[in-house]
Specification:
The protein has 6 helices and 14 strands. By secondary structure, the protein is of the alpha+beta class. It folds into 2 domains: 155 residues; 104 residues, hypothetical protein PF0899 fold. The strands form 4 sheets. Strands 7-14-11-8-10-9 form a 6-stranded mixed sheet. The protein is globular, with a radius of gyration of 23 Å.
Length: 280
Amino acid sequence: MANPLEIGGTHEQRESWSRLLLARATEETNLWDDFSTDYEQDEVSGIIHVPTRNREVVFTEYDILNGIDLTQSQTEYIPLIPDKHYAANELIDGYEAEAVPDNLAAARLSDAGETLGLMQEGWAIETMLAGGTVSTDTSAITEENAYNIIAAEISTMKKRHFKASQMRCVVDAHTELMLLTNEKFIKSGSTLSERYIQEGVIGKINGVPVKCNYLMGDGVGFMIYDRRFLQKYVVWKRMPFITDIKDGRHVVASALQARIVAGATITNALGVQIRKYDTV
């Protein structure tokens, strides 16, 4: 049995358009993609809870005769509020929905994906700046000290048991320029795997991949974060589709429509370290 027809195309077509739009959005993001979706949702109330543990499971030496003492770690649930509601309602003049050419639909979806990607990146940065820990040091980042400053921050996070394999460092344009004069950093970039290159990594410091982001705002030199403590929720309320406009005012016109709901949170403030500097 075929999929039931919906306005603007079949359900399969809407899913295909959703994937295309999100794929285009992903090209514009390197922070939002590092947020995970490890949450539980109450089926009745719709409330979203993100589990977070106060420590890892402990292994100790086992005594065959007496066994070992019980240990306990506590799992807490942090509410994740889906407070980002956005929709697209893009006019396509001169075409009824069934007559919109494929290349025009693809172009509109590509544009929508780019816009959505930039919005998602803004959500990620907003969440990290609001929920992370800001360093009290705001001194200038220079060619001479940029590499060492970041390396020291990473070492501090490692001492707090954040995992280097899950950590990332994202730098602004100013800090990127400073790093590109450092021989150690340049050398690290020449040995990156294809996986890191596809992720947008330009080098490593103290074992942690470094990426660039030019949307963090003035005064933010870099952020170091453990991806396990970044959580997001995103769902389509209306998958992308093209529908005729029947408002009594538009003639031979249609619109690309979609609606998305999202939210993000930080489950450990120390898992996001923010370094600002004086730009004056």
